[in-house]
Specification:
The chain is an alpha+beta fold and about 350 residues long. It has a domain of about 210 residues: Aminoglycoside phosphotransferase (APH), C-terminal lobe (Aminoglycoside 3'-phosphotransferase, Chain: A, domain 2, Alpha-Beta Complex), CATH 3.90.1200. It is about 40% helix and about 20% strand. The strands form 4 sheets. A 5-stranded antiparallel beta sheet has the order 1-2-3-4-5, with no helix packed on it. A 5-stranded antiparallel beta sheet has the order 6-7-8-11-10. A hairpin with a 4-residue loop joins strand 7 and strand 8. The protein starts with 5 loop residues before the first strand and ends with a helix.
Length: about 350
């Protein structure tokens, strides 16, 4: 089942699908924008085409969402899984109540482990059932710093170069985990990365969403998995595991040391250093393909990432292995996002 560009709710309001997540039962979870109000709506699309979408700020699995949505801007709503609301004083993360304790513990662990690297992370300031109140992390994301500026007179290279130099200075320290014992963290091995990639391939094939012929996708994933599994693995280090340009926040202007913030740290694990570096590197390339990042700004980030890879003694073949896996995984993920469906075909061939 291909993800449609839009669906109608029970009242006939058209909703533009922004993202979708496939399930084993043939159903899609959807996050959409109400064309009449611009607000996020969430629900699911059954294999037979039946659409079920809740009202704005409603979700039977997220008891705290109605109250949270009344206090700020709903930024994320993954039906029955989580929602994020931006308020004047911080962020609210709304989860099923049973999952709150694990996420609170993950934030505390992250803060402890990265403190020695001088990296700020969100702190959970209060918990009410499944609603977590998170402190803000100062700074501007690398993603926002890279966006084209309407009417700007040329590239602001000083700001972006400074931001990447701050990241490059701190990331090796982060990887060394100076703030505490990493033994409590899960390990994320090449086998795990291969399984993750294969799972996304299977979802694409099951839903008929593959950006290319099925045989081509299977062949590419087989090749990528081979690179991951048959190369020489590096010693694992502290890893974010979902590192991309929206997760890193930089402040401090064009001069001085600058401040480094890191968000969404509940996936911390021990993994090869190439995992995070490749994920960040490939996301920059994808942003350029999306028209959200200029070639010069992408190149500035790439230089910084390759410098850190050299400092961490990451062999080219390991960086390449994880980069190929990330490219194919992104192609599969974005095949379920209608706006970028055509881009995923070009992206696959580039990979």
């Amino acid at each position: 089942m291909l993800v449609p560009d839009s669906v109608l709710d029970n009242e006939g309001t058209r909703l533009t699908i922004r993202r979708a997540w496939p399930h084993d039962d043939g159903r899609l979870t959807i996050e959409a924008v109400d064309e009449a109000t611009g607000r996020l709506r969430a629900g699911h699309l059954d294999a037979d085409g039946t659409v079920t979408v809740t009202a704005f700020g409603k979700d039977p699995a997220l008891a705290g969402l109605p109250a949270a949505a009344d206090t700020g801007e709903l930024l994320v709503h993954r039906f029955a899984r989580r929602a994020v609301v931006r308020t004047d004083s911080g962020y609210l993360k709304v989860l099923p109540t049973r999952k709150a304790a694990r996420v609170v513990a993950a934030h505390a662990t992250a803060a402890e482990l990265v403190a020695g690297a001088g990296i700020a992370t969100p702190h959970v300031t209060s918990v009410d059932g499944g609603t977590l109140t998170l402190s803000t992390v100062p700074g501007t994301s690398l993603y926002d710093l890279g966006l084209p500026r309407a009417g700007a007179g040329g590239e602001d290279t000083a700001t972006i170069d400074h931001a990447w130099s701050v990241w490059a200075d701190r990331w090796p320290v982060f990887a060394a985990a100076p703030g505490g014992d990493t033994a409590r963290l899960p390990s994320y091995m090449p086998e795990d990365e291969a399984r993750t990639l294969t799972a996304w391939m299977d979802r694409c094939l099951d839903f008929g969403a593959s950006p290319v012929p099925d045989t081509a996708l299977r062949s590419a994933v087989h090749t990528a998995a081979g690179h991951l599994l048959h190369g020489t693995m590096q010693t694992p280090v502290l890893s974010h595991r979902d590192l991309h340009d929206k997760q890193v926040l930089i402040s401090g202007g064009d001069t001085g040391h600058g401040a480094f913030g890191l968000i969404d740290c509940d996936t911390l694990a021990l993994a090869e250093p190439a995992l995070d570096l490749a994920n960040l590197l490939v996301h920059l390339s994808f942003r350029e393909a999306q028209g959200l990042l200029s070639a010069s700004r992408r190149a500035a980030g790439e230089r910084a990432i390759l410098t850190v890879a050299e400092e961490l003694l990451v062999p080219d073949e390991r960086l390449h292995a994880y980069a190929l896996s990330t490219k194919l995984r992104l192609a599969c993920i974005y095949a379920f996002r209608p706006r970028w469906r055509q881009l995923t075909k070009d992206w696959f061939h580039d990979a």
